[in-house]
UniProtKB/TrEMBL annotation:
Residues 1-29 are annotated as: Disordered. GO terms for biological process: translation. Keywords: Chloroplast, Plastid, Ribonucleoprotein, Ribosomal protein. One of its GO terms (molecular function) is structural constituent of ribosome. Residues 1-24 have a biased composition (Basic residues). This is Large ribosomal subunit protein bL32c. It comes from Kumanoa mahlacensis. Belongs to the bacterial ribosomal protein bL32 family. GO terms for cellular component: chloroplast; large ribosomal subunit. Its main location: plastid. It is found in: Plastid, Chloroplast.
């Protein structure tokens, strides 16, 4: 017989959401940094070929 699961506490759900937002913020900062280095021409840590 199906039994409903226990409710997740607010603290646990907020903690998970904060962790998810922290990871997303880190990834976005890295993407912005790479984009800026490509635009400025100071890219030394990776190979980027510019197709014209």
């Amino acid at each position: 017989m199906a039994v409903p699961k226990k409710r997740t506490s607010k603290n646990k759900s907020r903690s998970r959401k904060a962790n998810w937002k922290k990871k997303a913020n880190s990834a976005s900062q890295k993407a912005i940094s790479i984009g800026k280095s490509i635009l400025s021409g100071n890219n030394t840590s990776f190979i980027y070929t510019h197709d014209t």
